[in-house]
Amino acid sequence: MTDKPIKGGVATWACLPGFPPAVIFPFTPGERFGVRSLYEFQMLMYRPLYWLGRDGAPEIDWDLSVGEEPVWDETGRTCTVRIKPWKWSNGETVCADNVIFWMNMLKVKGPRFGAYSEGYFPDNLVSFEKVADDKVSFTFDKAYSTNWVLLNQLTMITPMPKAWDRTADGPADATHDIDQAEAVYEFLMAENGDVVEEDNSHRTRWADSPVWSVVNGPWRLKSYTEDGVVTFVPNEHYSGPNPAHLDELRQVSTTSDEQQYELLQSGDVQVGFLPPGMGVQPDGDPTKGGPNPLGDGFQLEPQILFNINFMAVNFSNPTVAGHLIRQPYVRQALQSCFDQEYGAREVYQGYGWSQTGSIPVLPKSDLVSPKIAERGGFWPFDLEKARELLADNGWDVSASPAVCVRPGTGPGEAGEGIPAGTELSFSLRYWEGRPSLARLMAQFRDDAAKAGIEIRLEEVMGSVLVAEDGPGEKRMWQLSCWGGGWVYNYPTGENLFQSGAACNFSNWRDAKADELIAKTVTTDSLEALYEYQEYIAEQAPVIFMPTFPRRLFEVAGNLRGFSPINPYGLINPENWYYIDDTADGAS
Fold first, then answer.
1. Under CATH, what is the fold of the domain 47-192?
2. CATH second-level architecture of 307-544?
3. Which of 391, 410, 490, 505 has the most CB within a 10 Å radius?
4. Cβ atoms within 10 Å of 267's Cβ, excluding its own
5. How confident is the model at residue 397 (pLDDT cuts 50, 70, 90)?
6. CB 329 within 8 A of CB 269
7. Running DSSP on this structure, what letter comes out for residue 113?
8. Considering only CA atoms, which of 78, 155, 146, 69 is closest in space to residue 115?
9. How do residues 526-582 score in pLDDT, each as one tens digit?
10. What's residue 2's pLDDT?
11. Which residues contact 417 (CB under 8 A, 6 or more apart)?
């Protein structure tokens, strides 16, 4: 039997619980900067300058990129990018001005963009300019790794149409006058609506907006309902490759893994995911699907991303909890209480693996420090080591929670701002509606208690958690876990661990880390990458957690074009199509 494609049809995608698309404006702030709003929503409509992931490999897809490959001059400091003449849905041509418009906004509002890191793009540019209607040049302050520039810098750019260059008073010109960028930004953020508010009423206006309806991707937004159903239809003016086969793509909100699984069983969704606790990988290879509880009617596809998982710890908390977190030995003890192997083996049923530091373990590469790989991380699960760290630094661990008995800042004392009698106790907020995560957090709580650390658990809706517990000064949260972490382009760390980075979720500032990160972006030397990641692993500015496929995708058996899985988390539903599985033919 051969596959006989069917033109048209509707495919419904079940969103992860608690994470509806929250921002349509591609200039997404750090508190909403994640796969769900960017890669699974915005980029269907607004194509970035460079498309990450090609045929399942972690590289640039030049065919799907608006920009052609950068051309570097002999100094290694200036690159020129030609813009392909794709069309916006209002008839405008994608051009150099659209890139300059974005760059002017980034120059003015960089700290409000989730991928911004102080001192890097665009701060490390001497100039950027339009050199032809279809060409833009970027001159850097020194020579950098060209691989890093492409993957971590130029991928930040999303060309914006002239139709967006306006304020509430009418057309503006932030494209040519950078002083107007602030007002245009404020207008576009107002058109987006409150990025923290969870009510969908402001999102229902997006489809009919004269701003957001101007798209250059293969899809446009048809509707966003009060109850969170998102419907896309093909952009009839799309001029890039691979126009959509389907008539509609729907994305539905879910409240729990169980509810989503019921939708799969009933046939109400064609793309969903197997709840992590239900999937079993008997061979321990998380990259391959094991037995499928849904049977032959669905294809099981593990979504392996180039990512790490971690729990953020809040260095900016102004209470005694913040003083505790700022002590390296406390963070090291917390890391030593996390049994990642238990999580990978028992909670994630063989679909998980231990994350030993700031560089992804999978997909396998030579980027992971051999020193870290050999020892299983600087702080593998070891409750006795955790107790030793605490006892050596002024804590009585004979009871739980442990009590500070040697206050002060000298050797063997608890540290600044920690009075005698302080109990070692933290609140931990985590993403609700995920039984596997709840089980992992409960195990962490129980193990930590054996070492003298009290963990007080609280479930919070995922999108609320990310919005409220994101980077920022003097926020009151202590430990926060949204069940994920960070998907890298190239794993140099300036987004996560650079002082002042928009997505430095722990609000950590460390001069040595900044220095080591700076080395990784100016050379392709693996030794620089190893030195950086070893320091991060030793300092534990986050608590590394077992990593697992972002989802065990369940895809309807008659839906094709879904794989290969993009290692960065982007999706291409324009490639999806149904087959006539009743038709017979020679194979």
1. Dipeptide-binding Protein; domain 1 (3.90.76)
2. Roll (3.10)
3. 505
4. 10
5. very high
6. no
7. S
8. 155
9. 999 999 999 999 999 999 999 989 899 999 999 999 999 999 999 999 999 999 876
10. 60
11. 320, 322, 323
Query: Hey, what amino acid is at 569?
Result: G
CA distances to 321, 456, 472, 536 from 318, in Å: 8, 18, 12, 23
User: pTM for the full model?
Assistant: 0.80
pLDDT by residue (tens digit) across 262-313?
999 999 999 999 987 788 888 888 888 899 999 999 999 999 999 999 999 9
Pairwise CA distance, residues 251 & 230, whole Å: 5
Question: What is the spatial distance between Cα 491 and Cα 486, in angstroms, rounded to a whole number?
Answer: 10
Residue type, 507: N
Res. 151: pLDDT tops 70 = yes
Q: What are the structure tokens assigned to 104, written together?
A: 């002017």
pLDDT number for residue 584: 45
Q: Which helix (H) or strand (E) holds 493?
A: none
Spatial separation of the C-alpha atoms in residues 495 and 505, rounded to whole Å? 10
Q: Residue type at 430?
A: Y
> Which tokens belong to 453?
């650390």
- CA pair distance 487, 248, nearest whole angstrom: 28
Express each pLDDT in 475-504 by its tens digit.
899 999 988 888 888 899 888 999 988 789
Single out the residue of 267, 48, 218, 67 nearest to residue 561, CA to CA: 218
% residues pLDDT > 90 (the chain): 75
* Residue 476 neighbours by CB under 8 Å, 6+ apart: 317, 318, 319
Q: Given phi > 0 = left and psi -120 to 50 = alpha, else beta, which region is 513? A: alpha
Counts of helices then strands in the chain (DSSP H, E): 15, 26
Extents of the domains making up the chain:
47-192, 307-544
Structure tokens belonging to residue 23: 């921002």
How many whole angstroms separate alpha carbon 404 and alpha carbon 202?
Answer: 49
Query: Which of 538, 540, 491, 539 lies closest to 517 in space, CA to CA?
Result: 491
Q: How many angstroms separate the CA atoms of 186 and 268, rounded? A: 39
How many Å apart are CA 315 and CA 513, to the nearest integer?
15
* C-alpha distance across the termini of the chain, in Å: 5
Residue 271, strand partner residues:
13, 555
